[in-house]
Write a structure and sequence with these properties.
heterodimer, A: 319 residues, alpha/beta, Rossmann fold, Alpha-Beta Plaits, 2 domains, 6-stranded mixed β-sheet, 14 strands, 34% helix, elongated, B: 241 residues, mainly alpha, 0% strand, globular
Amino acid sequence: MIEVRDVTKRFGTTVALDSISFRLNEGEVLGFLGPNGAGKSTAMKIITTFLAPDSGSVKVAEIDVLEQPLAVRGKIGYMPENVPLYLEMSVQEYLTFVGRARGLAGARLDERLAWCVEACGLRTEYKKAIQELSKGYRQRTGLAQALIHDPDILILDEPTSGLDPLQIMEIRDLIKSLAGHKTIIFSTHILQEVSPVTDRVVVINEGQIIADGEIRDLARRAMGSNRLYASLRHDSAEVETALRELKETSEVIRLSGGDASRARFEIRGDFGHDLGQAVFNLARERNWELLELHESSFSLEETFIALTHQSQPGRKEVA
Amino acid sequence: MPNVWTIFRREFAAYFNSPIAYIFIIVFLVLNCGLFMTPFFLQGTADMRGFFNNLPLFLIFFIPAVTMRLWADDKKIGTFELLMTLPMRSSEVMLGKYLAAMAFYIISLLGTLTIPIMINLLGNPDNGAIFGGYLGAILLGALYMSVGIFTSGLLRDQISAFILGMLACFALFLLGIPAVAATIDGWFDGLGAFLQNYLGLMGHYESLQRGVLDLGDLAYFLSLTVVFLALNTLWLEGRKY
């Protein structure tokens, strides 16, 4: 549905995007992750034909963005980071304007207006001037604007920025409800926002894609090992030695807290080994009391930090 | 064309959604009619020459004030990105905005029609010259307007767009003044006269004002207007790179 191939974009001497490539199939939802200034917005502006790439190609629904930009724009609903609202217009006037500009008219326009107002929860604010609306409602109006023509593809640049936690949840639920019917790219620098909505992420840093895949796989690749927490009731030094001797473990860290007869350990081992089983077997063989055993998946934050450290440093950050 | 109409409607409503439109129209009418009426009864002639003579200088301030917001405002509040990702050509968006500004100007101009009505009641004016004068006023406005929308596109700030537009219109005005042309001729022989003919507007404007409909004058205004509108569109497309 969306195919980005070797896209490079420079602003003056700074490289905003350095030969990025990724693809997105129909109906997929992609979380576009990266620190501020990583190049997320630039990539979105290129996909939506607002900017042209210096080199490389972008195809949206098999249409090249440089050859037929108008056809591409017709298929995309776009919500820029700086939500484009005419403050003096009412929500109704504004959505009607965007609807008309996107080629809707008559009964079809009314139908879409009704749908957007319902889906985005704008009914109570429908007749109000946009300048009277709170940040949350402005954001929803921006989202309604992107949905008005029922596009196959949604490009949302930081759709939840500046919202309070409750509003974030509402927008997130809205995106989730659209997933499946539409192909969606949404960007964010807040990591917790991604996992409730989608598994597929592209991580971009300093204009380069440093990871592309499912969050879980990324964690594996980024951290290189599995992680387990265990605590056993026995002499701690003996337990530690025994744990180290297991062939499955690569690293055993004794955690603070506990005492000489009851220590807590962080155990790491390569993926592919069943670390939990190994520790359990050890405890059973030696008749040690196993108090805690749980596998801890890496958080998005840890993964992200590991990934950004892996990518080569030394290049300028770009807005 | 439906796209131009969609943009036109929004832009035109935007003028009247704020008090600015009404203030503009009132100032336009008070200044123009006031400046015209002050010497009117002293001179005792039933024509509108004084009115049309004031326009080229007066519009240098008025028109850029109307056009300054056209792009600068959109860029500032972020709607520029919305407009440039709508499934329509940049030229259509531009034309919708331009025509809305023109419609606003023509409405202001219609307000001055009280003058020809009054003159016709008081005496026997040359209505051909008055008609020519209004045509000249519209063409002059169209040209200034295209300069104004072009400069608005170059900048993100309305005030800067206003000042730059004013300077550009003033340059077109100055080039058409014989004294300025003669001075430039003094530096580079022939250049002043050349610029006066092809860029300066006073000569073309004055012949319209006399009621002479010359194809060359029409061509001057229309072609220069189209040039600035085309430059505006080119610049819009150029933003991508």
